[in-house]
Structures are given as structure tokens and as C-alpha cells.
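Backbones bend. We report:
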Amino acid sequence: MSRDNIISFMDNVGNARQRVADAKIQSLVTQMRDVTASVLPRLLQDLFENLDDDLFQLADKSGSDLLQTRYFEAMRELRKLRSPIQDAMLRAMLNQYDAFWDGRDVEPVISGAEPDSEDMALVTEEDLEENLAVTAVVTRAENQFHRALYALGQRFGFLLGIGEVSPTDNPIGPRALAESFRRGLNLWNGELPVKLVIFKLFERHVVNYVGGLYDDVNDVLVAAEVLPKLVQTVKRNPVAPSVQRARGEADEEAAEVATSSARSNDAELSANLLEVISDLLASRRAQSGVDARTLHLPVVPSVQLVDVLDDLQQDALVEAASTLNEAREVREHLRVSLTQQLELGSGDHPVKRLEQVDQDILDVVSMVFDFILDDPNLPDAMKALLSRLQIPMAKVAMVDKGFFGSKSHPARRLLNNVARSVVGWVDDGDRTPQSLYGRVESLVTRVLTGFTDDVSLFDELDKEFSAVQARESRSAEVAEERMAQVTRGQEHLRVARRRVETVIRQCLGDLEGLPEPATDLLNEPWRDVLLLAFLREGEESETWRDSVEVAHRLVWSVTPKIEQQERQELLKVIPDLLRKMREGLANISYDQHKAATLFKQLQACHITALRGKETDPSQITRPVLQEPAAEQPPVVLQDEFYRQARGLEVGQWLEWQQGERKLRGKLSWKSETTGSCVFVNRKGLKNAEMRIDELAGLLREHKAALLDDAGAPLMDRALNAMLEALRNTAPGAEPSPA
């Protein structure tokens, strides 16, 4: 293609764009480059780790032998070219990135404009079809990540002083990503149909997860105060006015109905819950005679109570507990301080009393945090952190009575989300700001320093915290799925090998020995033929049954034939047997020279068998079985702990003792065949694998415990537990069953 047909990667950026020279901006550019260079190899690793399985499934489902062959050839070739393709793509991506910030032109692979008639003459039909497929991938990605790309475009433009960088010109945008991958894939001379499939797999395993890279780069810029409070104005394609009006009116009406309904439900629930709580607390106080002793005392105004809580909230910044015991001591100290500053007197000699509703709120919040400190689902260090929120939560309940009844209340939502995120956390001593502990600590500090009476702060903090957790969750899901795929593959392979070994043993039986060619065939290539048939098509398939039959026929064919009828049968069987064996060895790409040698030796064995003679003892070998027989399953005690372990469901969390440390893991995969259970940590990485009987043993020895209801909202569980406790202690109440 002539030089005139090459479109500069930088043409659309504008004449005002200058080479970056500022040292601070250069430092940011380097940081963003490091993030890109760190994330992309991991995404490519995911692609190539899944490529074999995806192509194998496509080959298995293809109705054409030719297409199936193409897929298998692509598997072999791409496996060899994995490192060169990865290196070429990363190099192309970083070159584009460097050229963008250096102000140099780069040559794109994909043109964003439609080619004219002269260009069309220079573009082959295959190139055009490939361009269209890749452009479709880019378009879908730009739509999928338009918010993050908009933010990057604004921030990159701010650094360059040009206003905005479009997704097309973004050096780490979907188009740059696709261009770079296409450059790397040019190292492979694959056919177009298969190449288009590779681009689809690239979209599935790389492009669909590149949003995490954009989030990370945006985080770098936000941390450097580059447009930290950027608000996106989403640009959408124009819509007909009538449609726009109809949509707008329908949306407004639906939103109003939904909002009114939610407010009504929340108000009703709040009123009912507060009424129930107040009645139960009143019954308990009446039973103890507290109301009768304090009814005549002067009442502390709510305003004064809030002022004292404000002071104590500031004290909580200083008295920061780091352990569970310290948290309990701090809570007791704050309770004593509240009593002293309000001059309430002592329990035996009260001087003043609080408004009944204020007292109820403080009691309920205190009971909720008692539950939090006793909750086995939360790690102790996180309990200590969350306990510092007791006073702010009490203030929230006082200024907003919907706190208890509304599950969507921002303060409740924040507390629930933080509690859910720390279930799988294990205290490794990392207290840096980037760690989960550091983020929770920062959140708690911002509540203590920033909250007075505006509950919108909790909504803001929840959105920030949830955004970071969502990115980590996506990464964890990817890692967990990859681990599950590997584990399923390993499990399937183990089962296949055991089944193949069983077949080999059945074929050999109690024979004293077999001719060496037959033994070599069974123990080496035909073992692989059986393994491939089992893995590819399963034990119920005709291919597997035929492969097993060939193994039995092979053993029978080399044993001496004494009777004439046996000899005639062998003569009929040999041609078909040899044909099937050749087909099987071809399927596993067995070396043709070795195969010819084995078949020539096998021919001599068949001639000997037809003569009714035993094979020369020097040519006989004892069968070598490569793997031991499957071990007998251990005898297990089928008690309540075994049933508990067996009933563990995928997604449930477990805590167990490992040496001096406590570990936590989520059951990610459980084998229905062997009962093996695989656990992952909160990052989706495997941290334990154990059999059901081993898990039952840990439970039986109290070295492990299931974290029940770990996924249920913390506030819901706390309020339910508190209501249950109040009902059980009400006059005349029957204790609820455990």
C-alpha cells in the first residue's frame, strides 16, 4: 500500500498537541506505562491458556473433517508461536503508547475510515473481511467501556493541553489493543476462517476484561489529582423526538411510581420495626423496674445528646483500637464518657434520663455492634475497625429514623458492603493504604472526621469503596474461573488415566507375557489412543468402545492359535485390526517410522501365532503397567461432621487452622467423582484442596468452622439476632430453638 494511503495514528489529535516535557507528567506517563505493561501479559496469558480448550471444543463440534483438521493445526501452531505473538503484541502496544506521548506518528493496522475505490483495489477480499471482523470487536469494546474511555480521553487531553483524546486515538484504547494483537498474529499464517475465530476468542478473553486496565490507569490519574472529580456527559446517538418524548415520559412515570412505592414501603417498615423494638425494650425495662426508677427524672434534650456524641466521635479518632479486646475496652470507655458528660448519674443513683426514643436508639445500636463483635464471619482486626463506627451509626439513626427499616439506607448499605468484602480477608499484617485493611481504615477515618448530620457522605463512600471492590471481584472471578478450568481438566485427566489403566489391565489379564511388539503397542501409543478417545468423546462414545475392542483384539491376535477355526478367524480379523490401529495412531500423530517398525514386528508375531507356536522367550516381556491400581477409598466416619462437610455448597466460606495461622477460603469447586473440594481466597487463588473426609476431620477436631450466612447483609443479620434476643427475654417468652 502506498504511503498516501497510510493514516497517521495522531492525525485526529490536533495541531495544538505538544510533546510532553514536564517532569511530573513524564512520571505519570511512566506509571501508566508500567500498569499497561503489567496488565496486558496477564490478559494474554488468559487467552492462550484457554485457546487449546476453545479450539478443541470447536473442532469437536465441527461438522467438517477439513475444518476440524484446521482447528487442530491451529492449536499446534499457536502453541509454538505463543511467546513470539505475546512479545510482538506487547511491543507494538507499548510502541504506540510511547509514540503517542512523544508526539511521533505511528502507522495503524486498522483504518477507521471507509476505503475508497482506489484503496479497495489494493485490499484483498480476505483483508477486508478481517478488517470488518476486527473493527466490530473494537466497536463493541468502545461501547462497553465508553465511560472509562471518556474519562481517560478527558484526562489525557488535560495532560496534553488539547481538550480531549478520542477512543480511536487513545494509545491504550480498544483500537490500539486490536491493532497490536493483529500485528502479533501476523506471525501466524493461519487461514481466514480460523483467524476470525481467534479474533473472537481474543475478544472473549482479553477485550472483555480490558476495562480493569482502564480503571487502573484512571486511578493513577485520580491519585495524581488529574481531574479527580470528573463527571461524564454521556454522548449518545440522536433519537427521533417522538421516541425521545415517549421514552422520557414513560421513564419519568415509572421512576415516580417506583420512588413513591419505595418511600412508602421504607416508611412503613421503619415505623413497624421501631415500634416493635421499642415495645420489646419497654417490656424488658419494665421487667427490671428501670422505668419506675427513672420516670420522674429530668430529660436530656436530643440536641445535647448529639453534641456529646459529636465530641465522642472525635475521641474515637484518638482511641483507635487495633485488637478485639481493645475495641471492647474502648466501647466501654465511650459508654462511661457518655454517662459522665451528660451527667446521667450511675445505675444505682440515676440523676437524669434520655428521651425514650433516644435511649431506644442507643440501646439498639449498641446491641447491633455487640453482634458485630461476636460475628464469627468477620476477622477480629476488621471487627475492631468497624466497632469505631458505633457512634456515627447512632447519630445516623437519630437524624434519620429510616435507618433501621430501610435496607437501602446508604449507611446500612456501606456497612453491609464493607462486611461482605472482608469475609475472606486474612490478617497478613499488611496495613498499607492500598491493602483492604488500609482502605477500610481510611473509610472509617473519613466517617469519623466528616460525618455530622449529612448521610449523603455514606452514599459517596459506598460508591467509592464498591467501585474498587468491583474491580477486585472481577479479577478474582477471572482467576477463580481459570483455576476451576484447570482443576476440572486435571480431574478429568486423572479419571481418564485410571480408566485407561483399568482397560490395559483387563487386556493383559493374568498372562505370563506377551510378545514385545504387542506390549509396546499397548503400553505406549495405544494407551494414548485410549486416553484421547476418553477425553475427547467420553466413555459412552463409539470411538472409546472401538479403541477398547482393538486393545482386546490385539492381545488375542498374538496368542498361539491351535485350532484351525481360530487360525481362519485370525486371518479374517488381521486386516481390519491393522487398519483400525493405523487410524488410531494417526489420530495421535504417532511417529510414522516407529509405527512402521512396530507393525512389521507385529506381523512376525501374527505369523508365529498362526503356526500355533509360542513366541520366542527372548521376544517376550512382562507387561509393564505404568500406574498403580486405584487406592481403596478410606473408611470414613459418617457422623454429623461428615454430613456437614458433604453438604457444603459451592460459594460457602470456611475458616480452618493451618499451623499457627487461620486461613479462610471459599468452596469454588467440588468433584462429584472423587469428592475433592477446592477452596480459593478472596483474590480467586487456590489456597487449599481437601477430600470430604479430611474436611470432616477438621470439623470434628474443631480446627475448622463453616462461616454460615456470610453472604447475607450484616445489618439484616444483626437486627434479626437482636430481635430474636429481645423476644426471648420478654416476659413470658418461650426461648426460641437454636
